[in-house]
Amino acid sequence: MTDVEVSHIPKTSTAPRCVTRSGPVVLPRLVRQRAMAVGIGDLAERVAAGERLDAGDARRLFEVDDVAVLGALANQVREARFGDLTFFNRNLHVNATNVCEASCIFCSFARLKTGDQGAYTMALDEALGRIRAQRDRLVTEVHIVNGLNPDLPWAWYLDLIAAIRAERPDLHIKAFTAVEIHYFAEKFGKSYVEVLTELRAAGVGSLPGGGAEIFHPRARRKLCHDKVDADGWLEVHRVAHRLGMRTNCTMLFGSIETMDERVDHLLRLRTLQDETGGFQTFIPLKFHNENNRLRRLPEPTGNDCLRTLAVSRLVLDNIDHIKAYWIMLGIKLAQASLWFGVDDLDGTVKEEKIYHMAGASTPQELTRADLVGLIRAAGRIPVERDTLYHVVAEA
Amino acid sequence: MTPIACVGYTNAWPLTRHLDRSVFAIREAVPSEAARLLRSGEVELGLIPVAALLSDGDYEVVPGVCIGCDGPVTSVLLVGETPIEEWESVALDGESRSSVVLAQILLRGPLGRPDLKVFPVDPGSGRFWAQGRTGAVVIGDAARNLPDRLITRIDLGEVWKSWTGLPFVFAVWAGRVPLAPEVMASLRDAAVRGLADRVSAPEADRTYLTEHLRYELDDRALMGLRRFAALAYAAGLVTRESFSLYPPPRRLQKPLDVDSLLAKGAEGGRLSPAEGLRLFEHGRIDELGLAAHQRRLALHPGPEVTYILSRNINYTNVCVTACKFCAFYRPKNHPEAYVLSREQIAQKLTELVNAGGVETLLQGGLHRELGIEYYEDLFRWMKSEFPTVSLHALSPEEVFHIMGVSSLSMDATLDRLVAAGLDSIPGGGAEVLVDEVRKRIAPLKCTSDEWLEVMRRAHRRGLRSSATLMFGVGETLADRVEHLERLRQLQDEYAGFTAFICWTFVPDNTYVTPGDNSAAAWLRTNAIARLYLDNFQNIQASWVTQGPGVAQASLYMGCNDFGSVMMEENVVSAAGSTYALDITEVERHIRDAGFVPVRRNMRYDHLELRAGPRRSGGAEASL
C-alpha cells in the first residue's frame, strides 16, 4: 500500500507552541559521578554534548539498574528543553466500539463479534452525549480509539467525526490509531492518503499513537499477529505527517519483548521522526495483565517503568515530549516520573475503558485541580496545553 | 519602557487607565490600527482584536483579562435602515477586525443570510454606508450613539450568546517577545484597579462597563474564544485555528546554593536544622536522591536490600484517643469493637511460624481495661508457646497508657514488660514530633517529649526500636525538620533506633485534610532523612502508602530496606491504602530493582532461611 507522491501541506496552525528548543544540558557533579560509578560516564558526557545515542548505547542504558541516575540524566535533558514546565490537558476519551477482529493477546478490551458478551457499539447519539456532557468545561480534546469492527461502514466513522465537529468545532479531534487507519484502507479499498484526507476533511486533527505495541516481528507475531506490521504502522504516520497532521507514538513494554526489541522499537520511531518531524509525544505504555491471555505474566515493576521512561527521553532526541499515562502507571508513579524525563502527564481522562478493563485500578478521572496539585507537589510548574501544545489557560 | 498599543474606546478604559506610565510607553489607536502597530513591530504588546491574533503573527496572549461580553454588548452591532431580511449587502467598518469576522460567521449561521454580499469600508464610515438595502457593522463608541434612522440594530454579542451559550472575546493583550513577569504583573495590576474603578465611571457608561462587558479571560471566555477561532478558521476568515497564552517562566525560583549541603550530607557530615530546611525547600529531587544514595552506599555497600516477614497482631481496636487521622479504632461498646482471644492469637502465630516468620508486631488501641497484668500474662504465654517468635510490641503511646491504667512509673512498666518477654518497641505513634501538629491531629495522644522519653528509657535498657514519621497532615517543612532533629538528638544518646521509616498520611475515612502526601514528597523526605539522620543505620522504604514502584525508586534515593511483608495489616488498609504484596512480589520488586533480597529480623540482622518451600504472606493473610 505505497502511496502516491504527497507534498507537504502545512494545514495545521502555526501559532506559537510552547518552546521546545533545547538549551545546553549541564550535568550536576553528582550526576556525572554516579554515571561514572555505574559505567555510563561516557554516555552521560555524550548526552551533555548533545550527541546521539546508538542502539548499543541504548542497550547499555537499559541494563543499568540504578534508575535514579538514569532519571537524573533524563531529567537534565528534560529541563534543558522545558525547565520545570509540565504539561497536561483536559480531554475525554470515546471508545465507541470494542468489537474487534484482531486477536491481540494482551488486550482485555476487545470482543470478537457484535453480540458477544460485553460487546458494545455506541450509537452516534450516545457518543455525542459524552461530548455534550462536557459542554461547560474547557475540554480541548477528544481522543477516539476503537476496535476493528467489521460491521461498521465507512460512513459511520465520517459521520461520527463530522457530528462531533458540528457539536464542538473548538474541540480537537485526535482519532484512530494507525491500526485502524490501515484497517479502513484495506476494508474500504482506499489508500492511506485517501483515508486520512477524508478523515481530515471531516474534522480529524491528529492521530493518537496507539497500536505500535512492539515493532520487532518476533514479538509482534506473538502479541498481535493479525495487526498491521511495523512498516504499515510507520507508513500511516509518515503519510499523516506529510499531510501536515501531527501524531503521537507509543510502545507497549513489559510483556514478552526483549530489551533489544525495545531498543529496535525506539530507533524505528526515531528514524521516521528524522524524516518527517511529525511526532509530538512518545508515550510508553505499561503492560497490564488482568482479563487477558497473558495473566500469568507478571506486570513490569515501577523500576522498569521509570527506566523505560528515562531511556526513552535519552534516546528519542528528536521527539519533543515524553508523556506519562497515569491511567496505567498509577498516579504516584506518574508523579514521580516527572523527575525521570517526563514532561507531560496525560490529561483529565474521562471514560477510559481499555486499561480499566485490563485491571487498572486508577480512578476514571482526575480533576484539573488534582493534576495541577500533583504537578506543583512534584516541584514543577503546571501548564495546561491543547493537543498541539498551545498554552490553553493559566494553571 | 515597553511600547504598547491601546484602544481608546470606553470599553478599554478599565484595562488601560491605570497602566503604569513608567513601565509602558502607550500608543492609542482604533483596534485595527493597534493590530497594525503590533504587526509592524512598533509596539511590543497591544490590546488587539482577536481576529488579528488569529491572523497576523506569532503572538501569545496575556492570561487573565480581555474585553468581552456574555450576552448583549450594545457596542458591536449590525445596523440598517431596513430589516435584515431586506438587505442585499453589508459594509464592514475598517475600524474593526474581530467584529467583522464575527458578523460574517453569524450571517452564515444563526442570522441565516449567508447570501449577503460583504464589502470593506473605511474606518469609522460604517454607519454612513448603512442605507437602504445595505447594512453595516458598527462598533465602539459610535455604535452607542446611532442616528434614529437606523431602525435595525442587531447586537452581535447577544446573537453569539444565544447561538453558542458562550461569552465572546473581542480583544486581548497580546505580543510576540517573551514578556518579563513584572510587565505581565503590571498589566494585571492596572486591570484590577481599573475594574474596581468602574463603579465611579460616568453615569452614562456605568451599566455598559459593569454589566454589558466582561473582562475575565477565564475558562468560559477561553472556550468562547476557541470556538470563535475554530469557526473563523473553518470559514477561511483567519489563518490560524488556535492560539497560545504566554507560558509561565520556565524555572521555579533558582535553588540556592545547595550543592555544598548535598555534598556534606552525602559524606556523612552533620547538617544543621537550618540546612535541613534548605534541602527541603530548595533541593531538587534527582540530586537529593543521588546524594542520599551515596550516603546509603557508604553505610551499606553490599548488593542486599533487606525485608522482614512479620505478622501484625492488632489485639484490640478499642481505643480512647480518637485520633482524627485514624480509621481503625472503635469505641468500647461499638458493635465492631473487639479484643482478640488467646485462640485467635495462637492461630495467627502458628500461621506465622509455618510461614517462616520470626517476629510479630503486636499493637493495639488504648483499651481502658487492659492493664499491665494483661500484657505480662499475654507475653509470658506467647514466649512459652512460640519461643522462636520475637516480640516487637507496644508503641510508646501504649506504654504510656499502661502506666496510667496500672498506676506505675515508666521505669517499672518497662522493666515488667521486658521481664515478661518484650524484645523491642515499634516506633509508631510518633506522627510528627511537634506538639502543635500533634494537638491538631491527635489531641489525646502523648506529647513529643513523652514519646521520646519512653524511647529514651527503652533504649537505656537495651531495647531497640524503630522511629517513624507520618507526614502530609498539614505540617510545615520546618516541622518535618524538627521531627528529624529530635530523633537525631535522642539517637546520639543510646543509638537505640534501628531504622527510620516514613509514610504519608492516607486520608480516606478520616477527619484530617491531607497536606502534601504525594509520592514526590515521600521520595524527598526519605532522601533528606538519609542525609540528615547521620547516626541512623537504616532507612526503610515503606511501600504500603506509595506502592512498590515508587518504593523501588527510593532504593536508589536513600532507602536500603524494603519494609515488611505483613501477614496482616489493619490500620493503614482501614484508611484506604490498597497496596499489598506477598513474599514473592516483595522479592521480585527488590530483584527487579537490581538488588539481592535478604530476609532480616527486627534488629536488621540478615537471616539464613531454612530450606523448604516459601509460603506466601499475602495468601496467609486471607486465612
Question: What is the arithmetic mean of pLDDT of chain A?
Answer: 89
- Along the chain, the helix and strand elements of chain A come as HHHHEEHEHEHHEHHEHEHEHHEHEE
Count of the separate structural domains of chain B: 3
Task: Name the overall outline of chain B.
Answer: elongated
| Average of the residue pLDDT scores of chain B | 89
Shape of chain A: globular
Count the E strands of chain B.
Answer: 21
Share in helix of chain B: 25-40%
Cross-sheet strand order for the largest sheet of chain A: 2-3-4-5-6-7-8-9
Low-confidence stretches of chain B: 610-623
CATH topology of the largest domain in chain B: TIM Barrel
CATH homolog superfamily of the largest domain in chain A: Aldolase class I
**Helix/strand-derived class of chain B?**
alpha/beta
| Beta fraction of chain B | 15-25%
Class inferred from helices and paired strands of chain A:
alpha/beta
* CATH architecture term of the largest domain in chain B: Alpha-Beta Barrel
Number of helices of chain B: 25
